[in-house]
Predict the structure.
Amino acid sequence: MYPATFAASAPDRPAVVMGGSGTVVTYGELEERSNQFAHYLRGLELGPDDIVAILMDNNPRYHEVAWGVRRIGRYFTPVNTHLTADEVAYIVNDSRATVVIANEGVREVAAGLTPAVVPNVRHRLFIGAALSGWADYEDAVSGLPRTPVPGESEGDVIQYSSGTTGKPKGIRRPLTGAAINLARIDAWLTGRPFAPTRVSPFAAIRPAG
C-alpha cells in the first residue's frame, strides 16, 4: 500500500526487512526517500512515454525508487539482474527507457550501458561508489523535499516476459492519470501485500528471465 498510509500512524514501524543482513527501512524512511526521488524525477519533466528502468539487485533502496516513479504517474520497468549485458540493453532499448537507476551489485553490467549501447537513455543514476558516466544517486536526491510532489498520480510497472518463445515482450497498461490508490496492493512491488510486516528480500520484484 501507499507508504504514507502507514508513515502517518507508525513511522518507525518496519516497511522492509532484508532477510540476509537484517537491514530495516521504516515506513517513515520509505515515505521520505520515495518523495525525494519523486521530486528528482518531476524535475526532469518526463513525458508520458519516458520510462524509468531499474537495474538493481536485492537491496533496501529498491522500494523507494519504485515508489518514487509510481508517485509521479510514470512507468518503470524492473530489469532482471540475471540477464546478460546484451539482454539488459535490449530491455532498456525496447522499453524506450530514458532514465536508468543501478546499484553496486550490478556495476559491471551498468558500466556497459554506454550511450552507444542505450542511445535513448538521458539520465543515469548509480547507488554505490562512483561509476564513470553515471550520476551519484545520493547527490541527486539528498537535498530534495521529503514531502509528496504536488498532484501525485498513479504510475505503473512494465513487466517483461521471460522470452522463452522469442525476444522478451513488455506488458504495458495505459496510464490513467488517476490519483494514487491508497489501498492498492501490488504483487509486483513486494511479492505480498504491502503492509507493516516483515517482507521477503524482493524475491518477486524482478520478472523471470
Remarks:
- Residues 27-43 form the longest helix (17 residues).
- Helices lie at 3-7, 27-43, 62-70, 85-94, 107-111, 137-141, 187-190.
